[in-house]
């Protein structure tokens, strides 16, 4: 069974399934899906790749992995203890998933010696298993129904799996398939466009389109991050992991500051206004 099969099997696409919370609905824990969401997702993905590489190659790699693992757990704890979507908690969790998820995939290959094609397959199977369990237990994979602890646990397990899978897949296309970083990035741009076109031009439902696109943003952002920071002799632009990581972090902070002030991505905004 493929990821698409899991996503489409028994998925009922009603307006209520994807609409943000309103009225007396429970407060949601994830942001509205807007252009800002995809911008933040791609930026955090690229930043996580560059930051992970910088920490692994310029600091003690073991301490880096342990430290990021602890920050990852702290970020998830802060996010899950919140009773509603909070911009800084949510995106801090995504950032740490991006960094730590990259490290998980890299450790699997570098330390354990698992080939990229094997690790990609393993992470894909894990992702399908998580999505399948989520669908069986909750009857929906809509992120706009994430308002209970169990659904949020499934959500973050899925996110971690997509980051590990995307990292391994991006490295596989760049290295094992010899596409290089730029070629790999362009490939994933093309693949990212497929669910978008399929959503508008065919019967691909919104939930399936979202998750397929979400999975592909990881190798897409990571490939372009590698292209910009890797040395020229390895097919990159040679800007360095440190400068790329810092630059992306500053852009992310500006975007998140805008989101915190404007609250344009708050799925509970209408409900809060009604309560007042």
Keywords:
276 residues; mainly alpha; 0% strand
Question: What can you tell me about this protein's structure?
Answer:
This protein has 276 residues and is mostly helical. 74% of the residues lie in helices and 0% in strands. It contains eleven helices and no strands. It is globular and about 55 Å long. The N and C termini lie far apart (47 Å). 45% of the residues are buried. Mean pLDDT is 86; it is low at 10-22.
How is the secondary structure organized here?
Elements: H1 3-8, H2 15-18, H3 35-58, H4 61-81, H5 87-110, H6 116-138, H7 149-176, H8 180-201, H9 206-229, H10 241-262, H11 269-275
Q: Give the averaged pLDDT, no decimals.
A: 86
Gross geometry: globular
Number of helices: 11
DSSP, total strands = 0
- C-alpha Rg, in Å? 18 Å
């Amino acid at each position: 069974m493929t990821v698409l099969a899991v996503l489409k099997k028994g998925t009922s696409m009603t307006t209520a399934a994807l609409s943000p919370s309103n009225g007396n609905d429970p407060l949601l824990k994830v942001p509205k899906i807007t252009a800002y969401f995809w911008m933040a997702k791609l930026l955090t993905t690229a930043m996580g790749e560059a930051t992970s590489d910088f920490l692994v190659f310029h600091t003690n790699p073991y301490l880096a992995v342990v430290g990021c693992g602890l920050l990852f757990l702290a970020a998830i704890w802060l996010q899950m203890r919140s009773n509603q979507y909070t911009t800084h908690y949510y995106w801090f969790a995504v950032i740490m998933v991006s960094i730590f998820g990259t490290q998980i995939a890299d450790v699997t290959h570098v330390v354990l010696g698992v080939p990229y094609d094997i690790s990609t397959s393993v992470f894909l199977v894990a992702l399908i298993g998580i999505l399948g369990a989520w669908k069986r237990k909750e009857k929906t994979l809509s992120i706009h129904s994430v308002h209970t602890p169990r659904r949020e646990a499934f959500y973050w397990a899925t996110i971690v799996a997509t980051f590990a899978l995307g990292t391994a897949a991006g490295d596989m296309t760049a290295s094992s398939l010899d596409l290089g970083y730029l070629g790999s990035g362009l490939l994933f741009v093309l693949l990212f466009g497929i669910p978008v076109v399929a959503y508008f031009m065919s019967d691909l439902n919104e939930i399936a389109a979202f998750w397929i696109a979400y999975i592909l943003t990881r190798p897409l952002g990571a490939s372009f991050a590698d292209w910009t920071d890797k040395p020229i002799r390895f097919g990159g632009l040679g800007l360095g992991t440190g400068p790329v990581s810092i630059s992306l972090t500053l852009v992310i902070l500006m975007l998140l500051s805008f989101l915190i002030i404007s609250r344009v991505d708050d799925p509970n905004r209408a409900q809060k206004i009604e309560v007042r």
